[in-house]
């Protein structure tokens, strides 16, 4: 998985779910994975045991990270910023715990710029959020990143801009 291969050094994975990314870390020396849902954390235990590198699981939210300032070399988030209740606060926390020059690597679904499709996402969002564990179908994660102070260095779009691969740097 390309995004995971970009993660180096000590890595923070945001809302790691069932640990689907764990087997793909090749250049990391350690992963601290956070997951606020204990049911998901329990499902990731087998993936942790089968990982090639040390993975430590923390049952905490992205809005209140229990790590010291300037701890991580890389941060990974895959399809999670749609469900984080306070994404701007989470990004502040990620910046705080990231070293200067750290990469933030994301793969996210976002609100589409195409007028009709974006409007459809807006209309479906209230129902979708109820059935999909709070997922916000129409969240504009790219705008949140632009406002957060990270420097966006790369954006690749997929499926008519529904999914974005985003690389950022913490330059503070």
TrEMBL record:
Which is an annotated GO molecular function term of this record? S-adenosylmethionine-dependent methyltransferase activity
Has UniProt tagged this entry with the keyword Transferase? yes
What EC number is given for this enzyme?
A: 2.1.1.-
InterPro entries recorded: Methyltransf_11, SAM-dependent_MTases_sf, Thiol_S-MT
Coiled coil feature spans: none
What is the scientific name of the source organism? Filibacter tadaridae
Q: Which UniProt keywords are listed?
A: Methyltransferase, Transferase
UniProt enzyme class: transferase
Q: Would I find Methyltransferase among this entry's keywords?
A: yes
Q: Where is the signal peptide?
A: none
Describe the location of the Methyltransferase type domain by residue ranges.
12-105
Q: Which PANTHER family match?
A: METHYLTRANSFERASE LIKE 7A, METHYLTRANSFERASE LIKE 7B
The name this protein goes by in its record: Putative methyltransferase YcgJ
Q: Kindly state a single biological-process term from the GO annotations of this entry.
A: methylation
